[in-house]
Amino acid sequence: MKYNELVAISGLSGLYQLMSTKSDGAIVKNLDDNTTKFVAARSHNVTPLDSIEVFTMTDNIRLYEVFQSFKVHEGEVESMDVSKADNKTITKLFATLFPEYDKDRVYVSDMKKMIKWYGIVKKLDLLNEPQEENSTEAADEVEVN
Fold first, then answer.
1. Is the whole model's pTM more than 0.85, yes or no?
2. How far apart are the C-alpha atoms of 130 and 118, rounded to whole Å?
3. Are 55 and 101 in contact (CB under 8 A)?
4. pLDDT (tens digit, 9 = 90+) per residue, 19-34?
5. Most buried residue, 52, 78, 79, 84, by CB count within 10 Å?
6. How many CB atoms lie within 10 A of CB 119?
């Protein structure tokens, strides 16, 4: 599995691996329990993690780069139980993990999602993949053939 295969689905918690797309939806695999299901496009939006950006005071930053910033304070992320923490604690933690975020446009619910997603992506060991090099390698493979 690669980072660019991960998707978030509106109305459903957690992260999913995109298995296939259809004209009326997508087939995804839940990363928590490894079940596969069809997600209808009429009911849900399927968003690749690659396309998610976080608001900052200047330019928006890709989610992958935010996760790289989280790695610096990894111990604090792992010790926090997001579901039991109050909003003030989560905001303080997120400010430590990613101080450049726009305090007016990044909500606590977004922070909770990013912290949870970071734990999932870290568990799958997908944070060590250099994103730019993967696309370059794929281009090289096409040229060689």
1. no
2. 16
3. yes
4. 999 999 999 999 988 9
5. 52
6. 16
> 């780069």: which residue's tokens?
65
- Which DSSP state fits 125? T
Q: 144: which DSSP letter?
A: H
Q: Could you tell me the domains of the chain?
A: 3-49 (2.30.30), 52-123 (1.10.10.1650)
Query: β-pairing, 61-62 with 53-54?
Result: antiparallel
**Spatial CB neighbours of 7, under 8 Å, sequence gap ≥ 6:** 15, 16, 17, 18, 26, 28, 46, 47, 48, 49
The predicted-structure confidence for 86-110, as pLDDT tens digits, reads as follows: 999 999 999 999 999 999 999 999 9
